[in-house]
Q: What sequence folds into this?
């Protein structure tokens, strides 16, 4: 298994993986072509990182991170936008390898934190991230943290 930084040349591969991910969970999703067009642009940005994992020279999964400025530290804040491993390849260490690569890159960039949005009902994902040291509890008070969103 290999893990590497995706380039604009990988836009269609990443697009297909993201489309597969959304369809696996019956989420509304843009087309693969729409995703590919967006990834061709995103993969050229310095504040976006997409990692690809391949197993037997086939796409196995990907992780997408964005980085934004924050007044809370000198470096950026990392946000793990997506992490997906093909169902047949789960529980083989691919997700952990992608996440570790992402954490290592965030540290090199001087990030002070990494945020991840996880659905409350997705207990498998929550356990996975907690196993890797993430928490949904405020460090100072131990109270649960929530994420609010509003479509525009």
A:
């Amino acid at each position: 298994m290999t893990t590497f930084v995706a380039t604009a040349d990988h836009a269609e591969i990443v697009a297909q993986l993201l489309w597969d991910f959304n369809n696996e969970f019956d989420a509304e999703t843009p087309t693969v072509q729409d995703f590919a067009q967006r990834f061709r642009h995103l993969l050229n940005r310095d504040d976006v990182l997409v990692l690809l994992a391949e197993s037997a020279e086939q796409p196995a999964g990907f992780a997408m991170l964005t980085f934004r400025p924050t007044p809370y530290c000198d470096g950026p804040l990392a946000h793990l936008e997506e992490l997906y491993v093909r169902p047949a390849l789960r529980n083989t260490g691919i997700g952990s390898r992608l996440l570790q690569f992402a954490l290592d890159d965030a540290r090199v960039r001087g990030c002070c934190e990494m945020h991840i949005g996880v659905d409350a009902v997705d207990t498998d994902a929550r356990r996975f991230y907690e196993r890797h040291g993430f928490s949904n509890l405020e460090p100072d008070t131990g109270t649960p943290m929530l994420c609010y969103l509003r479509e525009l």
The two ends are 39 Å apart (CA to CA). The beta strands are 2-5, 48-55, 58-68, 77-85, 114-116. Residues 15 and 32 are 5 Å apart (CA to CA).
